[in-house]
Amino acid sequence: TLVTGTKNWISTGIMYEESRMWVGQLALYSIRDGTAAYVQTPYMNWMRKDNDSSTDVAVGGSARYHVILKAPPLSTADWRVTATAGTDLRICAVQVKEYGWGIPCLDPLAIETTYVERVGTMDRESGEILLNKLTCVSADPLVEDDTFDEHTVVVEVVVSVSQSAAIGATPALSIDVDHGDDGVDTTFNIPIDVAEAPLVNETSNMSM
Question: Where does the pLDDT of residue 13 fall: very low under 50, low under 70, confident under 90, or very high at 90 and above?
Answer without folding.
Answer: confident
